Amino acid sequence: MSPTDIRFEQPYRPKVTFKMAAPRERSDRTSALIVMGLSLACTAMAMFDLLLLASGH
User: Residue by residue, what is the 3-state secondary structure of the chain?
Assistant: First the structure.
């Protein structure tokens, strides 16, 4: 966790919304989807490689 992610807020303070948070969340979500997709693709290729190795090709 980076120091910029930690905020101290006073109790009963009205909610303040930051417009800069949305692009960062979208970027984090996109990065997570890319990593998940690449992980699944590598897993599928490794299984296919093991299948070819087991079949003797």
Answer: CCHHHCCCCCCCCCCCCCCCHHHHHHHHHHHHHHHHHHHHHHHHHHHHHHHHHHHCC
Q: Which residues contact 49 (CB under 8 A, 6 or more apart)?
A: none
Q: How far is CA 21 from the centre of its chain?
A: 16
The two tokens of residue 34 are 């890319």
Whether the model pTM is above 0.70: no
pLDDT digits (tens, 9 = 90+) for 8-23: 777 777 776 666 556 6
